[in-house]
Amino acid sequence: MKLLKTVLASACLVALTAPTLVNAGGIGVIDMREILATSKSAAKVQESLKSEFKERENALRGMEKTLKEKAEKMQRNSAVMSENEKNKVERELVSLQRDFQRKQEEFREDTQIRQREEMSKFMENVQKKVTEYAKEKDFEIIVHLEAAPYSKEKLNITSDVIAKLD
């Protein structure tokens, strides 16, 4: 009888502490999409990049506007222009178009390079904060939500990681 009471008491203790054990030293899940979409740190990175390239973007828009205006002017005036004038304006337009396309491609490449650099820094910081959080809360493993076909909501630590980032 005494043995039965001890076994039942042990079973109750295990049953009551099992959920705590899972949360205290188990598995956590993070949603990187949510971190990128909602963290202030990610927004700061995007704002920084936007302001870094704003001047060049505006210059490209101005160049594009000028190109369109010159093309429209040529179409309007082509009937009254001499053949030499038409050829000169067409060469100028082709040259402007090439220059615009070249600058546009350089801009695209530069923005992509900087985005990769900044995202790499951001992801390193996220990894650092996830590791800190996991050590603080005694997690054994943290998994990306995309890698887990199913997980309970209580395992999701994304909001806690975002709080550590911001």
Walkthrough of the structure:
- By secondary structure, this protein is mainly alpha-helical.
- It has helices at 2-24, 32-38, 40-77, 83-136, 158-165, and strands spanning 27-30, 141-144.
- The chain is rod-shaped and about 85 Å long.
- Mean pLDDT is 85; it is low at 1-24.
Summarize the structure.
The protein has five helices and two strands.
Work out the number of β strands: 2
Number of H/I helices:
5
The CATH superfamily is identified as Skp domain
Helical residue percent?
Answer: over 70%
Category by helix and strand content: mainly alpha
Q: How are strands sequenced across the largest beta sheet?
A: 1-2
Strand percentage? under 5%
Whole-angstrom Rg? 30 Å
Gap from first CA to last CA: 57 Å
Domain module count = 1
CATH class: Alpha Beta
Poorly predicted runs are 1-24
Shape call = rod-shaped
What is the CATH T-level topology? Protein Binding, DinI Protein, Chain A
What attributes does this structure have?
166 residues; single chain; rod-shaped; two-stranded parallel ribbon; mainly alpha; Protein Binding, DinI Protein, Chain A; disordered N terminus; 78% helix
SSE topology:
Elements: H1 2-24, E1 27-30, H2 32-38, H3 40-77, H4 83-136, E2 141-144, H5 158-165
Parallel strand pairs: 1-2
Helix pairs in contact: 2-3, 2-5, 3-4, 4-5
